[in-house]
Each structure stands twice: as structure tokens, then as C-alpha cells.
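Whiteboard transcription, Tuesday session. T.W. wrote the C-alpha cells on the left side:
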């Protein structure tokens, strides 16, 4: 019996329930795979009613009685295929021949945005402190790009990176996606972790804005997109350092937008909720209740796929949003609408 259901990680999970599996498990036989967090092995072969009840309980964060044998990424009408993305990206006007610099580009949202900009015809500078990850992430990029190993907490490295890029070409678009998440209760949050989160997420973003923005102001054109978070606009427990850093990114975005508007430089931010990146999935595995917390508060009933950040990011980075500055665009499945 094969059944599909959506669980807290927004994946379609396939349960293949067979009598032979139940017998093997009852006799102490080893499982074929390790169940995902929040589930456990069934002890007997359930009928269809029991199976559906188990799917329902798993969706709501309760222990299921099923044995997970296979799972695959979510596919739905709401998530465009790679081919569809490529087609409309190439049709976007005004990006061909432009240069974009993207930090945090070795993985997650930064990689998705940088790759999309490259597909759309822009020359992209992929920046990340993870050199090996950066090389692996860009191995299949076909467009015009370069890799720069960059730690945004190093002021001299930031100046050097921007100067070297600007010697060859003007940066038209800056996307600040470098960031980390650090869980911890406020009463036990160490100074060292606080300083690290603020330095990467907020100060690092400011450094990049300052270096690239100064040149954009001189040229009287340019677009900056900062990656904030719903955590910078609404509170939730257990992430005080992260939320403060992202709240700072929100206000940094607004401040720079006002300061540089007369120079033709636009500064906006994206405020994503939970997206299925490697880091976020690791958090869910460590704290299944965290994923359930956000899922219960997301009206669309699922989390974002990395491709779904691309449209909003390119809109803000490109001239399609030429009348938009100082805006914080939530990409959150309705999380902040409540």
C-alpha cells in the first residue's frame, strides 16, 4: 500500500506498508532506513484506515506508527520546475550584461539567487567563506561568473574583494545573503555567540553595503537586496541573537534606502520564513518541534523551496522594481499576515 502525505518538512513522504515488513520488525529485524524525526516503526501491518490516521498524526507532529521506506522532494503547481525557471529567467529584460555580487552564495538562498541571476544573463560574483563549497556549488554554472572566497567579518577582505571586482566591472546589483542562525535561550546566550551572529548577519551586511554602495552612489545607480527574515519583524522563542541581527538588517535597509535615494541607489530586503535549506533541515532534525512551530503558523501549510526565493529576489534586484526602495518583502507563506 503506497500513501503520500505532507509532513512538517514539506516533503512528500512515501510509506510502503507490507506484511513482510511488519513481520521482520516484530521479529527484531533491522529497518531498511532510519525513520525521520517524529516517527517510529510500526509494530503490525495496519489497514488503510490506520494508515491514514497515522499520516494525519504525523502531519500534526505526533509520533506515527509507520515505517518510512522512501521520500522525495516536494513537487507541486506552486513550485516551478528548473526548466520553467530557466525559461522565464532568460526572458527577464535588463539583466544581460549586468554584474551582480552575491554573498553567502555557496548554499541555500544565496546560491539559488546567484544561480538564477547567472541564468538570466548577469555576470555573477559568487562569494562565500566556504571555498570548497563555493567550488562545488558553481561547478555546473554555464554563464559568466567568478568565485571569491570571502569572509564578511574581515573588513580588509571585504574592501579587497569589492576593489578587485570593481577594477574589472561595476557592480550593478548586490545581494547580501551571508548569514548564520544560532539557537539559544536568552538567559544562556553566550557573549561569544551573540558577537558572532551580529558580526556576520548585521555588521557583515553593513560592510558590503558600505563598500559597494559608495561606488553605486558615485555612479548614481545600483540596487541592493539584503536578506532579512520574518524573525526581524516578529518575535519567536529561542533565537534572540538571530532575530536581533535580522531586525538590524531591516532597519539598515530602511536607513540606507532613505540616505541613498537621491543618488538613484535602491536598497530593499527580503524577509523569508522557513525555507528548505540544508541548514534549516539540520535544525528540524535536532528540534522537530521547531519545524512544527513554524508550520502551524504558516497559512500556506508548507515551507518554501529555494527556487521560490528567486522571483522576489530578481524583482527587487532588477529594474522591474525601479520605483521600490526601503521595502521589506516578506516571502513567508502568509506567516506575517496573521
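and on the right, the sequence the group agreed on:
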Amino acid at each position: 500500500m503506497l500513501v503520500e502525505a505532507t509532513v512538517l518538512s514539506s516533503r512528500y513522504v512515501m510509506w510502503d506498508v507490507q506484511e513482510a515488513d511488519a513481520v521482520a520488525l516484530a521479529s527484531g529485524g533491522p529497518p531498511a532506513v532510519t525513520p525521520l524525526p517524529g516517527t517510529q516503526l510500526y509494530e503490525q501491518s495496519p489497514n488503510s484506515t490506520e494508515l491514514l490516521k497515522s499520516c494525519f498524526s504525523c502531519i500534526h507532529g505526533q509520533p506515527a506508527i509507520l515505517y518510512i521506506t522512501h521520500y522525495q522532494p516536494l513537487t507541486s503547481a506552486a513550485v516551478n520546475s528548473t526548466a520553467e525557471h530557466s525559461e522565464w529567467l532568460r526572458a527577464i529584460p535588463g539583466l544581460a550584461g549586468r554584474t551582480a555580487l552575491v554573498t553567502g552564495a555557496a548554499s541555500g538562498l544565496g546560491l539559488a539567487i546567484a544561480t538564477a541571476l547567472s541564468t538570466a544573463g548577469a555576470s555573477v560574483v559568487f562569494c562565500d567563506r566556504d571555498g570548497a563549497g563555493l567550488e562545488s556549488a558553481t561547478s555546473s554554472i554555464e554563464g559568466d561568473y567568478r568565485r571569491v572566497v570571502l569572509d564578511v567579518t574581515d573588513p580588509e577582505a571585504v574592501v579587497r574583494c569589492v576593489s578587485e571586482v570593481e577594477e574589472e566591472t561595476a557592480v550593478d546589483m548586490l545581494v547580501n545573503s551571508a548569514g548564520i542562525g544560532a539557537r539559544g535561550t536568552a538567559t544562556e546566550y553566550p557573549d561569544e555567540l551573540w558577537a558572532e551572529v551580529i558580526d556576520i548577519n548585521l555588521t557583515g551586511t553593513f560592510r558590503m553595503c558600505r563598500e559597494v554602495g559608495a561606488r553605486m552612489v558615485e555612479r548614481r545607480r545600483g540596487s541592493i537586496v539584503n536578506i532579512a527574515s520574518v524573525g526581524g519583524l516578529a518575535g519567536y522563542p529561542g533565537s534572540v541573537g538571530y532575530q536581533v541581527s535580522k531586525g538590524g538588517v531591516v532597519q539598515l535597509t530602511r536607513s540606507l534606502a532613505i540616505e541613498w535615494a537621491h543618488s538613484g541607489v535602491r536598497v530593499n530586503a527580503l524577509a523569508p520564513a522557513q525555507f528548505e535549506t540544508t541548514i534549516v533541515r539540520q535544525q528540524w532534525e535536532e528540534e522537530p518541534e521547531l519545524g512544527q512551530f513554524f508550520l502551524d503558523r504558516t497559512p500556506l501549510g508548507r515551507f518554501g523551496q529555494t527556487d521560490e526565493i528567486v522571483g522576489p529576489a530578481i524583482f527587487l534586484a532588477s529594474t522591474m522594481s525601479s520605483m521600490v526602495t526601503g521595502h521589506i518583502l516578506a516571502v513567508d507563506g502568509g506567516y506575517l499576515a496573521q
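Someone added at the bottom: Residues 2-72 form one domain.
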